[in-house]
DNA sequence: TCTGGGGTCCTAGGACCC
DNA sequence: TCTGGGGTCCTAGGACCC
């Protein structure tokens, strides 16, 4: 339970503000007003349980403040306290992140860099250095995972944490103390500041991490969600962008409260079935989305915007090959292949077209992707010039079917294709899995073309970074391993080059049957 | 001011099958 | 001869998020 009896009986505000590191700036915003008593232990469905006690979810949303520019300011002290802008620095660039010093001049994300330079000519304009950001992100997320392994990273600088199982007796005070410890730990270890919203759902946590920025914490007591949301603009709801807001405003709906007052039918008529239903629930403070620790990729793509529009098909073909090479590298690095090849172009007038084609078999082969992408490009009129071209692959599966092997396979080794989802669902192979045997694509590993190690499915292995696991599938030049931990979440599937020196056989095989071994121990 | 790059999800129409 | 409905897959576009 979330409630603190004293507080719930005295109707005091449960809000909590940032710790002492908050820089000078806008005055602290707090959860103002009197909160009603929380509902004592009202069950919220059966999905979250710890032992026999059901508790209201305790969800955090952690968001690093002005992340890219903060990393740059840490790495280069001369930038501290000054306006810094990270983004595309070319003629058609846009701002990824503006430091708070730059925001004071009206610079913000997604603004064309040209406009930002006009508003703040003396700022430092930097191209993004994703490697540095990834390093910092990993350090922060590791600290957060020490609080709970139920962490869903939604972007390089954002994550949801579910504290429910680990803290079934959470109170506003205990959540506040825990989060302030985490924020202090992040700052001490990395120099970065994180803002956090805490509440009974992702929605409430997310909205309030935004309101807590920069370097703040807002804890929303259970039971106060709807009334807190009601006066907010509909734009505060994640999923309401410019188009949806305009549509709502045209019908006199500008606040969350007005949206909540609509009939469900009206909301659906206005916004469509899925969107209308979800936003209507959100407006009532209802959000049952779970924190999901692992998610299978659905597509891989790469695109580029030209400095000036391009009409020359030879040039376009060269870009298609380069973009495909980037996509292919990432597919192979993750052991993925896809069935649908997508070509995307943006024309001189900023209109965007996509053309796609679906193959009989998934592929991760550059030549195959290029062939189809070029065919799609050939069907488009480019005479007025393109400003962007992109290549993508979707319909992903975890395993490649190498064309090379077509002739080698005999009927008993006929490949069985499985989707990434089959392997990434959290209970795969677990006690509740109706079919714990891995549905692995079998490929002939008896006669690889080189002297590299040959792995057979079921073999036990160890990997320096990921811990212990067993071989789940093998392909030409690569091996796919399911891990048991530690170091990697239970059930995690990873693919490696089969001569990866960090991949070591454990000998003799002594691995227990996997359905005895995988448990959901959260 | 003139709009990046990487994604996710939804909708809608048409083909096709039963 | 005229005409079903449901389900699935594919394609294209659009909104949205960071």
TrEMBL record:
Recorded family membership: Belongs to the DNA polymerase type-Y family.
Official protein name in the record: DNA polymerase IV
Names of required cofactors: Mg(2+)
UniProt cross-references to Gene3D superfamilies, sorted A to Z: 3.30.70.270, 3.40.1170.60, 5' to 3' exonuclease, C-terminal subdomain, DNA polymerase, Y-family, little finger domain
Alphabetical UniProt keywords: Cytoplasm, DNA damage, DNA repair, DNA replication, DNA-binding, DNA-directed DNA polymerase, Magnesium, Metal-binding, Mutator protein, Nucleotidyltransferase, Transferase
This protein's encoding gene: dinB
EC number: 2.7.7.7
Annotated segments matching region Disordered: 1-53, 420-522
Function recorded in the entry: Poorly processive, error-prone DNA polymerase involved in untargeted mutagenesis. Copies undamaged DNA at stalled replication forks, which arise in vivo from mismatched or misaligned primer ends. These misaligned primers can be extended by PolIV. Exhibits no 3'-5' exonuclease (proofreading) activity. May be involved in translesional synthesis, in conjunction with the beta clamp from PolIII.
Source organism (scientific name): Phycicoccus sonneratiae
Superkingdom as given in the UniProt entry: Bacteria
Record CDD domains: PolY_Pol_IV_kappa
Keyword Methyltransferase in record: no
Reaction(s) the record says it catalyses: DNA(n) + a 2'-deoxyribonucleoside 5'-triphosphate = DNA(n+1) + diphosphate
